[in-house]
Amino acid sequence: MSRADFRRRQSRRRRQKLARMSRHLPTFILLLAITVLVGGGIFALYRFVLAKQPDGTVQVIASSGNGSPNPDEGSNSDRYPDSGSGPASGGDSSNQPFAEIPQDDISRLIAQADRIAMGYDYDKAAELINSSGLDLNDSRMKEALARYESQKAALVPADMNAVTYIFFHSLIMDTSKAFDGDSDSANYNSVMTTKDEFLKILEDMYQKGYVLVRIHDVAYEEPDENGNVRFVKGSVMLPEGKKPFVMSQDDHCYYPYMDGDGFAKRVVIGEDGKPTCEMVMDDGTTSTGSYDLIPLLEDFIQEHPDFSYKGARAIIAFTGYEGILGYRTASSYQDSPTYEADREQAARVAQCLKDNGWELASHSWGHLHLGVADPEGGFAIDEERFRADTDKWEAEVESLIGPTDIILYPYGNDIADWRPYHQDNPRFAYLESKGFRYFCNVDASKPYWTQMGTNYFRMARRNLDGYRLYEDLIQTDPSKKRLTDLFDAAQVFDSARPTPVSWSYQK
Q1: CA separation (Å) from 184 to 189, 443, 507?
Q2: Of residues 462 and 57, more confidently modeled
Q3: Domain match, 355 and 488 both
Q4: pTM to 2 decimals?
Q5: Rounded Cα gap, residues 113 and 117, in angstroms
Q6: Taking all residues of the chain, what is their mean pLDDT, rounded to a whole number?
Q7: In 10 A of CB 341, how many CB atoms?
Q8: Is residue 90 a part of any domain in this protein?
Q9: pLDDT one-digit tens code per residue, 217-241
């Protein structure tokens, strides 16, 4: 075949192909028009009907589902180890509601009520529905109310004589900086807990059925039949197998000596209105996220609402000599150009903490031994210094955070031995006159210890720090391990820690 014949044949084939396509062109146009019309209709339906947010006051909240005092054994000590006293990286702690799936008012209301119910507050969940103004005859509303009633009926009283109390200091976020061998490393290794350890402790305690409660849930004041106020044991109702516990964090001040050692810098209010932390990164920038106990616990409760009883959070305890919450609010900083701004912001953050369920407490102003130096030696500091320190805490810290009735003794150093407080103890009388009613020492020798008087409540704390974890880790006698009721220290202990871990606690 010649080249001219080939070209003629190709030209003829192209003309035949175009002719065939032209015959089907009207069909193609019709199909395209139908596709455009259908697609536009679907978009309009979603935009103006399904995805429209109806008016109302119901807030969308994410939901992940449909959740004896022993005074003879208590004692005092000025140290934690034995019984004595009675970045990696942080994440954004914001709460993200699931708004991807369009919902009506009732669906959103029930999601919010369900989350409340997961924290064992079935009455509040039911009240939210009953007072919503929405259709109570809707089958979903009836089902939710019946479910809350059924779950509430299954609750049993928790043993309020067997409530354990754990505490931490500032969490180590970057172990390479905290354990770099400088003069502070031994102190950090002894009394601080790492981020990884803390998260493992939370998970293990959650799996064991522990539920966080307020110390005011354990015991509280109420008037008797004669109108006299006195303490009574609280009543906490939980599902079978659940166990209440109290948590606190000491020294929440971010002292200057901690700068550059792998800790958060200060507590701030996040974009979601919840407390979170700032931390200085390696490049000198400041990052906001989950860099200490407060936002990490918030994150955990957001994921596990049934870990918190009716919205309970931990107790946060402050000294005052370097300020609070990472702000230099002490009077020694009054010449600083940011002094007033620091005080104002610290007060706002403190209020944010209280608004979100956190309880605030005194840890003394100067982190002093407020109690006895030893069983025979009397008080560690004289009465004048004791009162001056208490007054200074009131002036420089309580003036920012508001009244509190909780004091966590520094070093666990109680103002009396295991026997009940009496008014003839001048230190108890003075602290009571300042409004304190809850007095917490340290005793890691037993799972729990409480003592209740008519006008006070005492409770022993358990230090979950490097020293305590290491002691349990190396203990070969199972009967002498002190943490097995909470978790397995071998699974929690951070391998980044230098070993052995000795006791070293210097303020």
Answers
A1: 9, 25, 10
A2: 462
A3: yes
A4: 0.81
A5: 6
A6: 86
A7: 11
A8: no
A9: 999 999 988 889 999 999 999 999 9
How do 315-318 and 378-379 pair as beta strands?
unpaired
Of 32, 52, 72, which marks where a domain is finished?
A: 52
User: 340 and 327 in contact (C-beta within 8 Å)?
Assistant: no
Host domain of residue 427 = 156-492
Residues 6+ apart with CB under 8 A from 10: none
CA 442 to chain centre: 21
Pairwise CA distance, residues 91 & 277, whole Å:
10
Q: Scanning the structure block, which residue is given the tokens 């067997």?
A: 162
Lookup result for tokens 């931390």: 279
Rg (CA), the chain: 31
Encoding tokens for residue 484? 């097995």
CA distance 30 to 10: 31
- Exposed, middle or buried, 59 (CB in 10 Å: 0-12/13-18/19+)? exposed
Higher pLDDT, residue 97 or 200:
200
Give Cα 210 distance to the centre of its chain.
Answer: 14
Q: How confident is the model at residue 507 (pLDDT cuts 50, 70, 90)?
A: low
Tell whether the model's pLDDT for residue 95 goes beyond 60: no
Give the contacts of 294 (CB within 8 A, at least 6 positions apart).
249, 267, 275, 276, 277, 314, 316, 353, 358
Tell me which DSSP letter residue 327 carries: B
Q: E strand or H helix at 220, and its extent?
A: strand 219-223
- On whether both 174 and 41 belong to a single domain, the answer is no
Total of domains in the chain: 2
Predicted local confidence at residue 85, as pLDDT? 36
- Per-residue confidence (pLDDT) for residue 12, from 0 to 100: 53
Assign 413 to helix, strand or coil.
coil
Residue 283 domain flag: yes
Token pair recorded at residue 17: 């192909």
Q: Are 303 and 202 spatial neighbours (Cβ–Cβ below 8 Å)?
A: no
Model confidence over 322-362: pLDDT tens digits?
999 999 999 999 999 999 999 999 999 999 999 999 999 99
Separation of alpha carbons 345 and 268, rounded Å: 8
Rounded to whole angstroms, the Cα distance separating 60 from 97 reads 6
For position 26, what pLDDT does the model report?
54
Domain edge (last residue) among 52, 67, 97: 52
Give the three-class secondary structure for 72: coil
Compute the average pLDDT of residues 209-216.
Answer: 98
CA distance 393 to 220: 24
Contacts of the segment 52-56: beta carbons below 8 A, 24+ positions apart: 54/104, 54/105, 56/105
Q: Phi-psi bin for 364: left (phi > 0), alpha (psi -120 to 50), beta? A: left
Residues 77, 417 contacting (CB under 8 angstroms): no
In this structure, the answer to whether residues 46 and 188 fall within a common structural domain is no
Report residue 466 as tokens.
């490097």
pLDDT digits (tens, 9 = 90+) for 138-162: 999 999 999 999 999 999 999 999 9
Residue 458 domain-assigned?
yes
Q: Is residue 25 part of a domain?
A: yes
Residue with tokens 């303490």: 231
